What does this fold into?
Amino acid sequence: MQDLVLKLAEKLQAELVQTHASWVLLIKDYVYKIKKPVNFGFLDYSTLAKRKFFCEQEVKLNRRLCKKIYLGVIPISIVNGKIRLGDTTNIVEYAVKMKRIPEEALLINRLDKATSELMKKIARRIYSFHTQAEIPKDFNHLEALRENVSENFEQTKPYIGKTIQRSQYDFIKEKTLSFLEKYENLLKRRESIGFIRDGHGDIRCEHIALLNNNICVFDCIEFNKRFRYSDIINDMCFLSMELDYYGYPHLAKSYEQEYSRLSKDKDFYKLLYFYKSYRAYVRGKVTSFLLDDPHIKNKDKISENAKRFFVLAKQYIEKSH
It folds into this structure.
């Protein structure tokens, strides 16, 4: 699979970027995103059929917040030993085709120039999306949240002593589980009155583009409903957690205050730091996964980044109690 991707990158003269779950091929005007044949438990791209399905889901779901960027799913075939894009003769893989977003349009690259007014505008965009997002049917939010939390702690065990210290791990786990127990009734009530929505699941600085005064939020979670179906506070606060991480707490505050004002949610600040801790822990975990990928370099930097996320997770969970 790696060889196929490298050959396609060479054919397209593309820059190749890797995540823990995808290969991303960047050319002048377009992007081709190919899912890795991996199974992390919470994410399963292990078969061609699954990768095709999740490519289709990715396009469908991301068009909710970024209509013009996602162009479709492109088959990749090998015919007479040659790789062909868009050919269905002998399909060996699939790719999501997108318009390439200019690097300078990404929020991650504009943080030093971002203003409180911009963050308020982004908050309005996210809140509007949440008010229109589908309310999941036959979905137990509290059960899914407990499963997500349990999975996080189980999957970070191999990184104890590497990217997270035992004392941090034990503290965050104990405080997280006690929070879920303490606020069980509140979490159940929020589900009953419609605060659980089919959201984005990955609202991060890297996934927000400012295009001709339009806010495009792309790269949502398509691979697991229990990550995308969540409390709207959980969905929105991924961004403010990252703003804190990158050293812009004033921007995070503006974003949070505007979202809180719009939602008129009396439980907003009661739940905010718990969910920010959850998001920071997820980022610490996923960043740690990169240490196990033999094709990814800069392992020292990756390790330091993961450590910082876990430190932030601990700070947040302390504030939640």
Q: What stands out?
A: The radius of gyration is 20 Å. Residues 59 and 270 are 35 Å apart (CA to CA). The mean pLDDT is 96.
